[in-house]
Specification:
Number of strands: 14
Number of domains: 2
Number of helices: 5
Radius of gyration: 19 Å
Distance between the termini: 24 Å
Strand order of the largest sheet: 2-1-5-3-4
Strand content: 25-35%
């Protein structure tokens, strides 16, 4: 049985490649594949407590069964790395978008407004000119795109189900971003302000922990990957057996 393995961020540097095919004796589980990858890449053990794994764009556990042709991704903490892999499929989304074009927060907000709204909360994430005590020159964002879009849409649907809001829009930009440009825009419309504020805060806080988008910071004396936040408990990391 052959599966495809995709590496992102610091794991891509460790592997020295973006993607590879791995032959397994089927049937096999994700944990067996991960053990094989550890044998090939001894340094992978250093990341054992922080890596999340996915199969075909969905977070998976070590006991998940693999099938011929599956795509497995090794994901470092989000916002902490970079990768260029862009799988062929692109999930449809009605509330979210990833793009390499500049984001227009005013236009996003105007398109979301409706007569029944009493509030529209807009979060506009902006590239600042400093980080880690150094002057930032620019940032580069990259993503596991089909999975990122699916995760953004899931956040939007969950917010609509759990908060008293009418509609939501989430847009994230990829590629090189200059100082002052918007990296992510979240707009939430509702009849009352409290629900809109709460939903917007929940979306951005969760996005930073679960959506596979990575950030690289460029300074005058070099570049580093931004520190990613730990995955939440409901997402399995390579050392654990928590369920999806």
């Amino acid at each position: 049985m052959r599966v495809s393995v995709v590496y992102f961020g610091v794991l891509r540097d460790l592997a020295g490649r973006e993607q590879e095919a791995v032959e397994l004796t089927g049937p096999a589980r994700l944990g067996e594949l991960y053990s094989e990858l550890q044998r090939r890449l001894p340094g992978l053990g250093d990341f054992r407590s922080s890596i999340a794994l996915s199969i075909n764009y969905e977070y998976a556990t070590l006991d998940s069964l693999l099938h011929e042709g599956d795509e497995v991704a090794l994901l470092p903490p989000v916002s902490g790395g970079s990768g260029a892999h862009q799988p062929a499929i692109s999930p449809k989304s009605s509330h979210s978008r990833v793009t390499r074009e500049p984001l227009d927060s005013r236009n996003i907000a105007d398109q979301l407004k409706a007569p029944q709204d009493g509030a529209l909360v807009l979060f506009d994430g902006i590239v600042r000119n400093h980080s880690r005590g150094r002057r930032t020159l620019y940032l580069e964002y990259s993503a596991y795109e089909p999975m990122a879009l699916a995760q953004l849409e899931e956040l939007a649907e969950t917010a609509l189900a759990n908060y008293a809001i009418r509609d939501v829009r989430i847009e994230h930009r990829l590629g090189r971003l200059e100082i002052g440009e918007s990296s992510v825009v979240i707009a939430v419309a509702s009849a009352h302000r409290a629900a809109a504020f709460e939903a917007a805060r929940w979306i951005i806080d969760t996005l930073k922990k679960t959506v596979p988008i990575w950030k690289k910071e460029f300074f005058e004396d070099g570049a580093v990957w931004a520190d990613g936040e730990p995955f939440p408990p409901e997402i399995s990391v390579s050392s654990g057996n928590t369920s999806k």
